[in-house]
Amino acid sequence: MQFPEGFVKKYEAILGDEARAFLASFDDEAVSAFRINPLKEIQVSFSDAIPNTPWGYYGKVSGKSPEHVTGLVYSQEPAAQMVAQVAQPKPGMKVLDLAAAPGGKSTQLASYLAGDGLLVSNEISSKRSKILVENMERFGATNVVVTNESADRLAKVFKGYFDLIVLDAPCSGEGMFRKHLTLWIIGVSNIQANVLTCSVKF
């Protein structure tokens, strides 16, 4: 894959000697995966489990399949599953997912809570928050509140409230380049533009 000069220099500066291996990974085939839903009474058996994950499996699941439509599984790549796995909230905790749409992290966080505690899934985009609501309902999580607010407003209402805050911040979308080469132009233009600073304290 031919990279724009700015993209290569950016990751050489960030990764140093590891940049070559990172850039070479874009030539590898994209890895698809999904998670089973431990909140559902009915379970489906799959092979090819992702090592060291409680619910992850390699493979593709159609968005029109009965398993997906009924919330038995959630399609999510292995790397995306790492966020909630690292956070790994305990049942009974009060958790905030600050940038939650479309729901991958929130459904996984809800899996760890197992119906005990509270998950506030927030999405600042009203359009994306509707998708978030649909996915949380499909997943069957009952201890979740979906909000459509700014971080500043949430901080005023929930000051000192949460045990855990998860923020998988919006990015440039560079990870999608391997799947959709047409995103190169959009992604490269966002390399400099997408700088997120978080100064809100809860």
Automatic annotation (TrEMBL):
<feature type="binding site">
    <location>
        <position position="168"/>
    </location>
    <ligand>
        <name>S-adenosyl-L-methionine</name>
    </ligand>
</feature>
<keyword id="KW-0949">S-adenosyl-L-methionine</keyword>
<keyword id="KW-0808">Transferase</keyword>
<keyword id="KW-0489">Methyltransferase</keyword>
<keyword id="KW-0694">RNA-binding</keyword>
<comment type="similarity">
    <text>Belongs to the class I-like SAM-binding methyltransferase superfamily. RsmB/NOP family.</text>
</comment>
<dbReference type="InterPro" id="IPR023267">
    <property type="entry name" value="RCMT"/>
</dbReference>
<feature type="binding site">
    <location>
        <begin position="99"/>
        <end position="105"/>
    </location>
    <ligand>
        <name>S-adenosyl-L-methionine</name>
    </ligand>
</feature>
<keyword id="KW-0963">Cytoplasm</keyword>
<dbReference type="InterPro" id="IPR031341">
    <property type="entry name" value="Methyltr_RsmF_N"/>
</dbReference>
<dbReference type="Pfam" id="PF01189">
    <property type="entry name" value="Methyltr_RsmB-F"/>
</dbReference>
<dbReference type="Pfam" id="PF17125">
    <property type="entry name" value="Methyltr_RsmF_N"/>
</dbReference>
<dbReference type="InterPro" id="IPR029063">
    <property type="entry name" value="SAM-dependent_MTases_sf"/>
</dbReference>
<feature type="domain" description="SAM-dependent MTase RsmB/NOP-type">
    <location>
        <begin position="1"/>
        <end position="202"/>
    </location>
</feature>
<dbReference type="InterPro" id="IPR049560">
    <property type="entry name" value="MeTrfase_RsmB-F_NOP2_cat"/>
</dbReference>
<dbReference type="InterPro" id="IPR001678">
    <property type="entry name" value="MeTrfase_RsmB-F_NOP2_dom"/>
</dbReference>
<feature type="binding site">
    <location>
        <position position="123"/>
    </location>
    <ligand>
        <name>S-adenosyl-L-methionine</name>
    </ligand>
</feature>
<protein>
    <submittedName>
        <fullName>NOL1/NOP2/sun family protein</fullName>
    </submittedName>
</protein>
